[in-house]
Write a structure and sequence with these properties.
alpha/beta, eight-stranded mixed sheet, two-stranded antiparallel sheet, 22 helices, 8% strand
Length: 727
């Protein structure tokens, strides 16, 4: 019982806190628990409010609701009524001061009823609302809210908000067709909030399915969980079938709502002196007397509204505190990303320097694969060094297996002795007609996608640095025939040997696709780096305009450094392909000797036999050894020698080239060297900027200034809201 009393005692305090939040316009940032009265014009909304509050709301067209009205009733020892205006969320500071200065003279007791229409006229004037369309000044509706607070020892704790009634036809000289949509949008702005209970006022004497307000409520409350129907004007329902239909609504047998329907009879124009008890006697008649007593009459409705408001306030208060705290933290993060205000050169340079510092930190993390401290690297495409290593691994694997124009022979598949003049000679550079090819760029991108690296952006500025020739042929077979043809085209007066130029020409032909493959690979390297640079710049610079201005200034030097990396890669290709074959690597001779040994072993395999007493040892006749070497023709020996030397050198050249390509063209030129494009935007660059360029980049633009003002204003309001809640 004590716990229940404590809960009840806490309700007024919570409700007062919510009212204070509403006065601070916190409702524009977070949804507040509230009861909102909505309905079509002539639905009985004004009469209902009068019955609930005792204040006579005018019913004439000129004074119909043109603004939201908050009616708050509070229990207090002192009887008093206060009226003031809460400025709208978009009100200027001058307009706020003007509205807050409004202090109407409020007559005591019953005299307020007769004085209220004149007070409303004053309010519309203060809000700048025009009531005559012939006037060219003012607006027809206002975002400002009229607050009426009624206190007394017999008042209950209740706050309801009245919004303009929905209408379908404009009134000549008063409203326009545009005002129809304006009011609908105003009503929507209230009913869409998740903490709003919609009090839908519906005249009982019309088919409620024709009432637009129910359709509007259903739009934002599809399950009907926060819509309460209030049926008015039951005295105008005379047909028994219509009365039954109304009773079925109240009993939940028709168009049910979770919060149900209430049936009330409001004061009419002739009922000014009629009390609630007299009005509620109407429900002692049939068929209304058969309805549950807690669903009929103003007294029952008021009790339900008080309990409902207390319930949603108590339930949502902890969530409200958490949401305000989260919004405040979000505002602070946005302000931090905007950086400090920067009206002069010193603050502009400091602001830009901080951005450059963050960029350099992220660059360092990206190159060292140090990803965990940075949220940016949750996107795999931003993990620069990982992407480049994976890309290079796939490129190297393909390059070593498919980079040559023709497959080398293995001892296990060695061809028969070539016949020098048995077949027509085909040019070494003439490709076979049975070759297949792939789009190498697509292949590399597909490989990256298997690592979760997907870049959907296209960068037109990289077009001149990439190649359109991206098809790469698979290696052909028949290398011994090709060597034969190559030899016949270049043989000289060599005695059982070959011209050293032959090996150079053969290597150049075998590496014919290198340059094309390298350009495709380097294009993808540049694309990864470019994606990282643009993404990182926008990540560290919250102001998109500043990021775009920085990029516009650094783009040309960045592209120049890209080009230097591409040129270095091309240079390495040319060195390998067009310089005479040469190596100091001792493994070259070793590989050649190994190849010769394998060929000899294969030739003698058929001549050898095994003796049981030697287990796995094989025995050869020395005469057979001599016979094998004697029967091999000079041509066969020569072509095998060319093949083995070309194969051994090609393998060494590929390994050497792949190392040089990555270390020089990628790592040094593009990533870690002093002329890397990643070093263009840095703190040193900021220090060296001239004042004019600095101001053009870092000077705060109008959109950023406006956003800062909005965030500062929102932060101030949310801090005040937390003080109200926690006090």
């Amino acid at each position: 019982m004590n716990a229940l009393n404590n809960t009840l005692l806490s309700n007024p305090e919570l409700l007062q806190k919510i009212d204070k939040l509403r006065e601070q316009n916190i409702g524009q940032h977070v949804a507040l628990p509230q009861l909102v009265v909505v309905g079509d014009q002539s639905s009985g909304k004004s009469s209902l409010l009068e019955s609930l509050t005792g204040i006579a709301f005018p019913r004439d067209v000129e004074l119909c609701t043109r603004h939201a009205t908050q009616i708050t009733m509070r229990r207090d020892r002192q009887v008093r009524t206060s009226i003031h205006i809460i400025p709208g969320p978009q009100a200027s500071e001058d307009h706020k001061m003007y509205l807050r200065a409004y202090t109407p003279k409020i007559p005591p007791g019953k005299d307020l009823r007769s004085a209220f229409p004149s007070i409303l006229r004053e309010v519309t004037d203060y809000m700048g609302i025009r009531t005559d369309m012939s006037s060219k000044t003012g607006s027809v509706f206002s975002e400002d809210t009229l607050k009426i607070e009624i206190c007394g020892p017999h008042e209950d704790y209740l706050t309801v908000i009245d919004v303009p009634g929905i209408f379908r036809k404009h009134t000549e000289g008063i409203t326009t067709k545009d005002d129809i949509n304006l009011v609908r949008n105003l009503v929507r702005s209230f009913v869409r909030d998740k903490r709003t209970v919609i009090l839908a006022v519906l005249p009982a004497n019309v088919d409620i399915s024709t009432q637009e307000i129910l359709a509007l409520a259903e739009e934002y409350d599809r399950l009907g969980e926060r819509t309460l129907g209030i049926l008015t004007k039951p005295d105008l329902v005379t047909e028994p079938s219509a009365q039954t239909s109304v009773c079925n609504l109240v009993l939940g047998k028709r168009m049910p709502l979770s919060l149900g329907y209430y049936l009330v009879r409001n004061r009419g124009a002739d009922d000014a002196a009629t009390g609630e008890g007299t009005l509620d006697k109407f429900f002692q008649q049939q068929p209304w007397s058969s309805l549950p007593p807690d669903r009929i009459g103003i007294s029952a409705l008021r009790k339900r509204l008080e309990a409902l408001l207390a319930e949603i306030t108590r339930r949502e208060f902890p969530n409200l505190r958490r949401e305000i705290s989260e919004k405040l933290a979000e505002c602070q993060r946005d302000l931090d990303r905007l950086g400090p205000a920067r009206p002069n050169e010193k603050e502009q340079r400091s602001y830009l320097n901080a951005i450059a510092k963050q960029f350099e930190d992220l660059k360092g993390g990206a190159l060292a694969a140090h990803y965990s401290p940075y949220e940016l690297f949750e996107r795999r495409a931003m993990r620069l060094i990982t992407g480049l290593v994976n890309l290079t691994g796939e490129f190297s694997d393909w390059f070593q297996r498919h980079g040559q124009m023709r497959h080398f022979e293995g001892p296990e598949s060695r061809t028969c002795e070539p016949r020098l003049l048995a077949e027509p000679v085909r040019s070494p550079s003439t490709p076979s007609t049975d070759t297949t090819s792939i789009d190498f760029r697509t292949y590399l991108r597909d490989c990256l996608e298997t690592y979760g690296i997907v870049i959907n952006d296209e960068y037109p500025e990289l077009a001149t640095l990439s190649t359109e020739d991206t098809d790469v042929e698979d290696p052909q077979h028949g290398i011994m025939d090709w060597i034969k043809n190559l030899y016949l085209e270049s043989r000289g007066m060599d005695l059982a040997t070959f011209n050293t130029e032959l090996l150079s020409a053969a290597f150049a032909e075998q590496s014919h696709q290198w340059e094309r493959m390298v350009k495709v690979y380097m294009g993808e390297v540049l694309r990864l780096i470019h994606h990282f640079m643009t993404g990182t710049l926008h990540a560290v610079c919250a102001d998109d305009e500043v990021a775009k201005d920085i990029w516009a200034v650094i783009l040309m030097p960045v592209l120049e450094r890209y080009e230097a990396g591409m040129k270095q890669a091309t240079l390495l290709v040319h060195i390998e392909r067009y310089q005479p074959p040469f190596t100091l690597n001792p493994s070259f001779n070793k590989e050649v000797q190994t190849a010769r040994g394998k060929r000899m072993k294969e030739s003698l395999q058929d001549k050898a036999w095994n003796q049981a007493k030697y287990e796995d040892k094989w025995v050869l006749n020395l005469d057979d050894v001599a016979l094998v070497t004697e029967t091999k023709t000079n041509a066969q020996y020569l072509f095998e020698e060319i093949h083995d030397k070309l194969q051994s050198y090609y393998r060494l050249a590929v390994d050497r080239f792949m190392d040089n390509l990555f270390r020089q063209a990628v790592s040094y030129q593009l990533l870690t060297g002093p002329a890397s494009p990643l070093t263009v935007f840095c703190q040193k660059w900021v220090v060296e900027l001239d004042a004019e360029t600095l101001n053009r980049i870092a000077g705060e633009k109008e959109p950023a200034r406006k956003r800062r003002q909005i965030l500062n204003k929102k932060t101030k309001a949310l801090k005040e809201a937390l003080e109200i809640i926690n006090f």
